[in-house]
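[recover] target loaded
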């Protein structure tokens, strides 16, 4: 990289001060990128150089558009990686600038469409998360040991999160004072900011559920009743 015409000219000066500056210049230009990026680009250039050196019709440097387009095709087919293709373009463009040459690859129309082609061809299809259904929820609760307090806590978290559309970060902030069971219904309140603000007037009621709904899913036995269930909630969601 540093034996191109511009660097040969820089290295040809005989004045002691110019010689000192010429010796320090390579380290300066290499610092234009983070060390990790420089190493990554040099590895990418070495991959290109090794491939081109094995082809009698190609030259390693300077890099020409037609031969580099063929290299990108080879790289995309062999690695199945969009990142490898994009990295190769960025690396060779960086090397061209480092060598004092005009950077022509990243702006070239053919190189652009080759990169775009592999971006689409090698793109991984998006896999949307399947929504949790009532049946899934029943199976989850059925697999939990409801004879232990930790099992009751886990089941409570699952059902409350499902019924009120809560993320774990939101439900993990619930405290005993945020849940009321009165008149056969459960009332859950959350802060609009996701945490306790100290101002009850800022809280919004998000959920009203019949207590029998929770009893049906096994949070408490039918013969125990609301008071036992309230006691469990007091224990699990007690204020700290």
């Amino acid at each position: 990289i540093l034996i191109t015409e511009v660097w040969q000219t820089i290295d040809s000066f005989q004045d002691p001060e110019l010689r000192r500056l010429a010796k320090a210049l390579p380290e300066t230009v290499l610092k234009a990128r983070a060390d990790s990026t420089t190493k990554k680009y040099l590895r990418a250039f070495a991959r290109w150089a090794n491939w081109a050196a094995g082809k009698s019709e190609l030259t390693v440097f300077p890099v020409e558009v037609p031969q580099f387009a063929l290299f990108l095709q080879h790289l995309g087919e062999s690695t199945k990686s969009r990142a490898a293709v994009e990295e190769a373009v960025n690396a060779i463009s960086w090397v061209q600038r480092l060598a004092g040459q005009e950077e022509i690859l990243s702006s070239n129309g053919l190189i652009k469409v080759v990169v775009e082609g592999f971006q689409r061809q090698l793109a991984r299809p998006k896999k949307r998360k399947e929504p949790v259904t009532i049946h899934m929820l029943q199976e989850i609760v059925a697999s939990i040991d409801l004879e232990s307090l930790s099992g009751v806590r886990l089941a409570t978290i699952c059902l409350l999160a499902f019924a009120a559309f809560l993320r774990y970060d939101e439900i993990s902030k619930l405290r005993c004072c945020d849940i009321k069971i009165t008149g056969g219904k459960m009332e859950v309140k959350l802060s609009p900011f996701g945490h306790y603000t100290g101002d009850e007037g800022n809280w919004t009621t998000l959920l009203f559920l019949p207590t029998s709904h929770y009893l049906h899913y096994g949070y408490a036995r039918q013969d125990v009743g609301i008071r036992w269930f309230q006691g469990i909630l007091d224990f699990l969601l007690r204020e700290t």
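[recover] notes: Confidence is low (pLDDT under 50) at residues 194-240.
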